């Protein structure tokens, strides 16, 4: 399996180094023949090539079997005309990665804030309330007068259908329970369509239990009783906010894996940003990116029919759980290790099993 690795900015290089070590250990144990091919994006690329993403990178990624994108300093990249492209947006859009899959679970010995749970938020990733996602040209926010802004939210039948089916398929492989999160009482047309389509899609999956909850009430439900949820499907912004909450409830935002998936391509990405405040200090938690790459391996295994990739993904998740249980982790999750040592501890557990 050929994987393109783009380390990114801030803590990106440190956590991708730690992640690559875990992948090499998994490759050895499960004979995955992983080939990691590293290229610059973000500030490193801007400095070297005058753009945060070289145009040829897209073909390189398309020719590979998967992409790992480290966090990038997206807030710094404002002027596309001067090469300041948001790398995450570029690949998400160019590769049509319409589903953002974000698991959140607690770990033995490191309980979350609210007892044990294991859920996944499946978030629509290509439209919704995001100014950069809805327009072929221009931006989804309009300054009508200096004091009036209109922000557009696009919802389409196609995007609702494909995210609904992605969530249903995932729920069928888990505990067969789907929760649709929406605000159809107010956004009657957009969320009304999303809700109707999700309900209709779910009917095609025998045994799938479905419920739906208004997004505001959902915040109370998920804090009160997160273990009642299995797979949660939501439009883009609701899913974005909800998945940060569920990751944090699991113990830390740094424990949340994230995979951006389309019909042909997938991109593993940490749930957090480039954390410039701790960059270069060897203190960042690499687990989010490590778990994201486990999701990438599982996706590849399912797509190619090669079971050993899914086994490797499960083994990485188990190794993360064991390292956390033993306290061999970074300080944000109660450990004392640095970024590289925390990655090495997970690789070691993986090799020793
Ligand atoms: P952030 O997620 O980078 O950091 C928020 C807080 O969490 C900081 O205190 C940071 O130190 C901490 N943190 C983040 N990741 C951590 C880790 N792995 N281990 C330990 N602590 C961690 O959010 P921010 O500071 O708002 O954004 C910084 C930059 O990242 C901005 O340019 C933003 O646009 C960008 N960003 C990029 C992505 C992405 O590439 N996917 C996502 C979010 C933000």
UniProtKB/TrEMBL annotation:
Residues 2-346 form the Isopropylmalate dehydrogenase-like domain. Keywords: Oxidoreductase. Belongs to the isocitrate and isopropylmalate dehydrogenases family. It comes from Bradyrhizobium japonicum. GO terms for molecular function: 3-isopropylmalate dehydrogenase activity. This is 3-isopropylmalate dehydrogenase. It is an enzyme of class 1 (oxidoreductase). SMART domains: Iso_dh (SM01329). It comes from the Bacteria. Its EC number is 1.1.1.85.
